[in-house]
Amino acid sequence: MMGTLGFVLQQTLIFFIPLLLVAIGAMFSERGGVLNIGLEGIMIFGAFCGLLFINAFHGSIAPQLLLILGLIVSMLSGMLFSLPHAFASITLKADQTISGTALNLFAPAFCVFTARVVQNVQQIGFENDYRIDEVPILSNIPLIGEILFQKTYLTTFIGAVLFIAAWIVINKSRFGLRLRAAGENPHAVDSAGIDVQKMRYAGVLISGALGGLGGLVYVIPTTTTFSSTVSGYGFLALAVLIFGQWRPGGIALAALFFALMKTIAASYSGIPVLSQLAVPNTIYKMIPYIATLVLLMFTSKNSRSPASAGVPYNKNDR
Amino acid sequence: MIGKKNILKQILPIFLCILVGLVFGFFVLLLTNPEEAFNGFRTILFGGFSGGVRGVGNVLYYATPVMMVGLGIALGFKAGVFNIGGPGQFVIGGFLATYFAIQLPFEGPMRWILPIVFAAIGGAFWASIAGMLKAYFKVNVVISTILLNYIAMYCVNHLIKQTIYDPGTNRALPVPKAGQLPTAGLEKLFEGSSVNIGFIIAVIFAVILYIFLTKTNKGYELVAIGFNPNASKYLGMNEKLNTILTMAISGALVGIGGALMYLANSGKSITVVDSLAAEGFNGISVALLAYNNPLGVILSSVFIGYITVGGFYMQSYRFVPEIVDIIVAVILYFSSFSLLISQNLDKIVFVLNRFSKKKAGEK
Question: What residues of B are in contact with residue A104 (Cβ under 8 Å)?
Fold first, then answer.
């Protein structure tokens, strides 16, 4: 039983960390007042660039260092890719859902195109030698050792650190306060002499960085051939954001819930209790989505969305 | 009513967006294969005409499902809901149509008409789930329709495997001749292409939707709610029921799109894979390029069909057809602020006028 629990939680972490990172990214964008529906595309683009980098230097750099560099590349590329969205929705006051949708259409098309031009096939294969089988000493701690320090990835710890940092930044820092104010009441921010547009740019660029990072973090442990899709994780991050009420703690709980559901869907055959039930495979696959939908039913009525999210800021509107 | 000047003002920015998208595409071609870039780009520009009458027929064939999806999405936008659930409603419609076209025990026109009706009902049902969640639980439609896309995809994959599965090809069984859409003489006009009566059906729906939105009370009411929900509520319009109705009609149109795609005589049937139907997302571009005007959707979907066929023929220059999706995405991106372009158009025209007048004065 202990083994099963450990296995389930270990698997859950693989789904949890990328979802958490991307949802936190979405939080920065929306708390600043810009909807970012383009995170799916940003994840794809970030993962794509990160993988190209990793493949280019594979073998010449030590695996864990290469992974860290790859993660940095995917962060930067995600940030770069979110720039057009920021420009359209902040500077040009465009329709934010449309420019976000454009990113979602562009990324897979561009990545498939580039992959096929460069290597003739759409899938990008890579060797996964980034798994850490055992962390000395720590892996011997009962249960926790098994979940966190065996067959683990560096990304888990990077994700945890970034989450804590994000929590501090959004809740405790001056920047976080200003960003939140830009999403709640931009006119007040403006009258306090703070540049609303700059704040919003910062929000979107942070979401781009975390989205790109989340893309690579999602791809590395779950597959060895990337075919320019992240299976809707960017969209799910938005559901997690709403379900988590735009707050880091809530987002973490929501992401954990979804990741647990996803783990049950992906590996129910390895869980003795569930594999004995004669429930078709498809039902399990649908569970995470249905469960999220049901939970949204109960949490949406008291939604505390940022008051000015999705509304372009115009100095002259009063 | 829209005056002549306003139509120009609306269309010009779209042409600019298309131009920018094409130029971007040309640069991508130039970067990837400079020698063939010019030939490849010419093929995209000539689009459907690259293949003669067959190519033109295929333009209409590709435009058909995207037009129906575009109509559904456009209605949603008009009424203030972003129905991003196209892929789900599309595949539900496609499945029901395929299923009934295979299973119905009689022949005659009803063999393909009834499946379309079932597809419409299925799409309407699926979309109205999101409508009800919005009306009674305030669930964000963008999020609920996204989640419903995945649920629909898994559902349909499962149902196909249970009922009309062809394990050899990992697809749904092909639709028998009697269940396919008739070609209605179009096959003589566009020899060798896959165009069929579906295109005519889609155009008829576009006209009906246009009349519904502009000439009927109910249609006007839906648009009014999209324009200003609070005022509409104040005037006694039932916002909840109207949201559900909007989603139901929108989903029905998208579902019919699925039917017209898979009942076509081109031999395409639903593949059992874990990925969303691309047509469902393409409909968003089609709707937006047309400013959500149903008659405009006819043109924009034919445009999408046109460059899709161009991308297909471009493969003979060893280019990858995904370039077309890149171009469409860029066009969509620029159209997100086309309003800004059209607002500043006056200024641009004003400056140009003054400039030319000055020149004339100098002479």
Answer: 281
Residue B246 lies in a domain: yes
Contact B138, B243 (CB under 8 A): no
Over residues B92-109, the pLDDT tens digits come to 999 999 999 999 888 888
B322 and A113 in contact by Cβ < 8 A?
Answer: yes
Question: Between A and B, how many CB-CB pairs are < 8 A?
Answer: 135
What is the distance in angstroms between the Cα of B190 and the nearest Cα belonging to chain A?
Answer: 30
Q: Is B332 in a helix, a strand, or coil? A: helix
Q: How far is A141 from chain B (nearest CA, A)?
A: 38
pLDDT in tens, A35-74: 999 999 999 999 999 999 998 888 888 888 899 999 999 9
CATH of the domain at B102: 1.10.3470
Sketch out chain A's domains with CATH numbers: 2-299 (1.10.3470)
Take residue A45 and report the two structure tokens written for it.
């683009």
Interchain contact, B337 vs A95, CB within 8 Å: yes
A239 contacts B323? CB cut-off 8 A: no
B239 assigned to some structural domain: yes
Quote the ipTM score: 0.88
A242 and B142 within 8 Å at the Cβ level: the answer is: no
Q: Are A165 and A176 in contact (CB under 8 A)?
A: no
Does a structural domain hold residue B265?
Answer: yes
**Neighbour-count burial for A244-281, b at 16+ CB within 10 Å, e otherwise:** bbbbbebbbebbbbbbbbbbbbbbbeebeebeeeeeee
Which amino acid is it at A281? Answer: N
Q: Which two tokens stand for residue A225?
A: 């051939």
Residues A301-314 have pLDDT tens digits of 777 777 777 777 77
Residues A66 and A64: their CA atoms lie apart, in Å, by 5
Closest CA to B63 of B189, B202, B192: B202
What does pTM read for this prediction? 0.88
How many CB atoms lie under 10 A from the CB of residue B37? Answer: 19
> Per the structure, how many domains does chain B have?
1
Torsion sign over Cα B41, B46, B47, B49: negative
Query: Is residue B333, in this structure, part of any structural domain at all?
Result: no
The tokens for B70 are 């575009």
| A290 has a chain B CB within 8 A of its CB | yes
Range of the domain at B230: 63-305
Contact residues on chain B for A298, CB-CB shorter than 8 A: 137
Nearest by CB to residue A92, choosing from B155, B320, B340, is: B340
The residues on B that touch A, with CB distances below 8 Å, are 28, 32-33, 82, 84, 133, 137-140, 142-144, 146-151, 154-155, 157-158, 274-276, 281, 284-285, 288, 320, 322-323, 325-326, 328-330, 332-333, 335-337, 339-340
Q: Look at A286 and B154 and tell me if their CB atoms are within 8 Å.
A: yes
- Residue A138 clears pLDDT 80, i.e. is over it: no
Secondary-structure breakdown of chain B: helix, strand, coil percentages, each rounded to the nearest 5: 75, 0, 20
